[in-house]
Amino acid sequence: QSALTQPASVSGSPGQSITISCTGTSSDVGGHDYVSWYQEHPGKAPKLMIYDVSHRPSGVSNRFSGSKSGNTASLTISGLQAEDEADYYCSSYASSNTRLFGTGTKVTVL
Amino acid sequence: QVQLVQSGAEVKKPGASVKVSCKASGFSFTNYYMHWVRQAPGQGLEWMGVIDPSGGTTTYAQKLQGRVTMTRDTSTSTVYMELSSLRSDDTALYYCARGYYYNRFDIWGQGTMVTVSA
Predict the structure, then answer these.
(1) pLDDT by residue, tens only, chain B of 118 residues
(2) Do the chains contact at A34 and B102, CB–CB below 8 Å?
(3) Which residue, among A27, A68, A97, A103, would best test binding to B if mutated, counting the most B CBs under 10 Å from its CB?
(4) CA separation for the pair B40, B4 (Å, rounded)
(5) In this complex, which of B62, B103, B109 lies closest to A99 when CB atoms are compared?
């Protein structure tokens, strides 16, 4: 069970849109619609931002959206703001009731 | 208030075991899976395993099979994660997280730092 693959870093200017990819296999990302995304600020516990590929929990800004195509899921942040600077992790349900996390992506707001 | 409160930091020697607790409050303990996730310094999140508090059924990450044990005490709404044969690369911040449906970790504990050092 290998970690899902994410780009190490993504950057953008305030107001721009960025997209973070999360690539797995047909046994995890591609096989289930149970991909979630987490935002982690330094020294803080991760926060759920997207669940079931594209659903936002109550209280999460609609600037965050998720999608999936084949074995790759994506998180898009539109109207980038300084407060969005953080680490982001995807997660997927995998085989035999296990879960996987992505390698993590550092988002920098220029 | 829905929350998970974990036990305090631990320092252990290589080869020893550590047991971390996670006490749930503000929700029905047996209605939600509880996951354990760890994060080594400067590294990413790693899923360790999950326990169903209602029946005690567990599933562990393959790489930790044989070293990790997750248990629960329904009388105190507490889950435990014990890791044995500790190595230096087990040094990490250990989180418990409430699992909602298949793959939503919607509530997280504050984390417990475990340091393995001779």
Answers:
(1) 999 999 999 999 999 999 999 999 999 999 999 999 999 999 999 999 999 999 999 999 999 999 999 999 999 999 999 999 999 999 999 999 999 888 999 999 999 999 999 9
(2) yes
(3) A97
(4) 21
(5) B103
